[in-house]
Amino acid sequence: xxxxxxxxxxxxxxxxxxxxxxxxxxxxxxxxxxxxxxxxxxxxxxxxxxxxxxxxxxxxxxxxxxxxxxxxxxxxxxxxxxxxxxxxxxxxxxxxxxxxxxxxxxxxxxxxxxxxxxxxxxxxxxxxxxxxxxxxxxxxxxxxxxxxxxxxxxxxxxxxxxxxxxxxxxxxxxxxxxxxxxxxxxxxxxxxxxxxxxxxxxxxxxxxxxxxxxxxxxxxxxxxxxxxxxxxxxxxxxxxxxxxxxxxxxxxxxxxxxxxxxx
Length: 263
Known about the structure:
Elements: H1 3-24, H2 27-46, H3 48-56, H4 62-95, H5 97-103, H6 110-136, H7 146-173, H8 177-183, H9 186-192, H10 208-212, H11 216-228, H12 235-258
Helix pairs in contact: 1-6, 2-3, 2-4, 2-6, 3-4, 4-6, 4-7, 4-8, 4-9, 4-11, 6-7, 7-8, 7-11, 7-12, 11-12
């Protein structure tokens, strides 16, 4: 069997293992899904009119703010779901299963690839579930074409891939599952500090650079433009650059940690 065939076979096996693990222990995924759903409902029904009036210059329209809110919530969902990847990797490292895998005649990188592919699938599925909740409470896109929907799904997948590789590195460097969850918490906090809830221009001047110069804001603005027809501008290529850069950085970091000889 060629090395490529071996890698594909073993990676698919590890992917199946991680999906079965997620199905048998759904509480972690459900807990991570609860936060974006609660934020969506809170801001839509409690703060919706007030936030819409502030952004729209006096016109209180909850549906307009809901449309503004949903792209940011979807990115928050992806950030939160990848925390589960960090926890899962840390659990594997500390429970000894990785040490057993090292003794088997399997492709070395298939273990991490299985974690990454499984996490990306969970991220996209979580975003679909949260999007379904948004549609149920009144979210509607604005004349988004089939091509724009495909690009939107592609963007969500690319963000999931980039953040998952970073989360895998955080899981590998953490001494236990609790530390992995804490180390990966910035993946959920950064969307809260972006343009997810209010435009960057509406933020205090000292805070605007924090919201603007981070990966989530261009990704959110790009997704918002694809779904709602707003101006994307330079945010499109910025989002791609951020995602590719983080994916490469996370891959190099994770693989170097994983291939390091155990102490």
